[in-house]
Amino acid sequence: xxxxxxxxxxxxxxxxxxxxxxxxxxxxxxxxxxxxxxxxxxxxxxxxxxxxxxxxxxxxxxxxxxxxxxxxxxxxxxxxxxxxxxxxxxxxxxxxxxxxxxxxxxxxxxxxxxxxxxxxxxxxxxxxxxxxxxxxxxxxxxxxxxxxxxxxxxxxxxxxxxxxxxxxxxxxxxxxxxxxxxxxxxxxxxxxxxxxxxxxxxxxxxxxxxxxxxxxxxxxxxxxxxxxxxxxxxxxxxxxxxxxxxxxxxxxxxxxxxxxxxxxxxxxxxxxxxxxxxxxxxxxxxxxxxxxxxxxxxxxxxxxxxxxxxxxxxxxxxxxxxxxx
Length: 325
Known about the structure:
Blueprint: H1 2-21, E1 37-47, E2 50-51, E3 58-63, E4 66-72, E5 75-77, E6 80-89, E7 93-103, E8 108-119, E9 123-124, E10 131-134, E11 139-144, E12 149-150, E13 158-166, E14 174-178, E15 190-193, E16 196-199, E17 210-219, E18 224-234, E19 252-255, E20 262-267, E21 273-277, E22 283-287, E23 293-297, E24 304-311, E25 316-323
Parallel strand pairs: 1-9, 1-10, 12-18
Antiparallel strand pairs: 1-2, 1-6, 3-4, 3-7, 5-6, 7-8, 11-13, 13-16, 14-17, 15-16, 17-18, 19-20, 20-23, 21-22, 21-24, 24-25
């Protein structure tokens, strides 16, 4: 009897310790028979701008504060973890669905930013373009206050200020750092004060026509994104031997800008060549087959800042283009 008592006590202790180490998962349960209508959602969970790969994480849907759907990230497709979720309601359409996320590794429930409208037999997302349920807005793009650096700028001048926008096009509070690699060979020409890029040396337009820098931005919530940028030197005395040059930007008209699909552009004077460079100074598009206007599909282009350069018989003129999807 003594050994049996000890065995029972030991087993109880093991169960208590095991229970103490298990995540305290939320008690999310839906009764489908309580509802008339359904829609589906193919979701991924994004914590602090990083997509989850944990099958223990959960996505839950709510209408008017009441749980209407819940699913683990228990489906793997091409290396990503999906929650194929059914959402229930008694209204045919119109109610707003909000979401919560359960992070099993942190044992924490987060309010998600995203919401959608309920529609009977509707579907939100698919495996190619899933509905992203997020705790934070990611950095969507960054904007510089200037397209170029004046050729007469000196050490201590602000070359440009940096503004970061989230996926809702709201301004983010950011900290900035340089990424020291081959994508930022000209980082050392600058320092960062708050959101200002400050020149460490006087500009010498005869020696350098543009600067390539590589920045890392971090939000208050810890989301990060890095950006390769090109800052041309502007002015009538700038040589074009070192890459694209900004001149009189009024010579180049871009619309819409930012562009997401079709870009229409025009050079005020007839041009011999049109070139588009990415933020790293790489040539991504060129054509000589145009008079003063041109249209271009940029829907497959990487979202970033580009420079459109029109070459005429008199000079080169450039304008900043933002591609955003």
